[in-house]
């Protein structure tokens, strides 16, 4: 394992818990399909406050999730130290998207404004509902109130503009919802 340089990282999943006794861990993947997370190498984990490269020794789909064993990890107690860690990869490994398409990680932390300029909060994360994705917007400094809002991610209907450089997202949304 070696420390990564000043590269931008994209979160692609999270190690959730240990699996079995041979050093494997369960992984929640943000990729679609979920197995695509196994195609990225190396993974980056934040160890002792620094992004550090880790390699996969093995990984596979298991039931509704993914299980992996990290290189050099063959014991449940060693594997436990990786639990609850985000998995990142170099942004250079992530495919370019078509214009108007965004990765969830690009939308997280954007400030959300109504068309009238009212700050509703900041995108904390997104959730998949089946019919459409949903922005989970939480309060931030200067936001209208302390409410958490679930706003459908529907480009050209609800979501009117996304400006990554400005860090903003404009929505056609009633602040009372």
SSE topology string: EEEEEEHEHEEEEEE
Radius of gyration: 18 Å
The helix-and-strand class reads mainly beta
CATH level-1 class of the largest domain:
Mainly Beta
CATH superfamily of the largest domain: RimM
CATH third-tier fold name of the largest domain:
Elongation Factor Tu (Ef-tu), domain 3
Mean pLDDT equals: 91
Assembly classification: single chain
The percentage of residues in β strands lies in: 35-45%
The tally of beta strands, per DSSP, is 13
Number of domains: 2
Q: Measure the end-to-end span.
A: 47 Å
Strand order of the largest sheet: 11-10-9-8-13-12
Low-confidence segments: 1-6
- Gross morphology is elongated
Largest sheet: 6 strands, mixed
Identify the CATH architecture of the largest domain.
Beta Barrel
* Helix percentage range: under 10%
The count of helical stretches stands at 2
Topology:
Layout: E1 9-19, E2 24-29, E3 43-47, E4 50-54, E5 56-62, E6 65-70, H1 76-80, E7 85-90, H2 104-107, E8 111-114, E9 119-128, E10 133-138, E11 149-152, E12 159-163, E13 168-171
Please tag this protein with its features.
mainly beta, elongated, six-stranded mixed beta sheet, 177 residues, disordered N terminus, Elongation Factor Tu (Ef-tu), domain 3
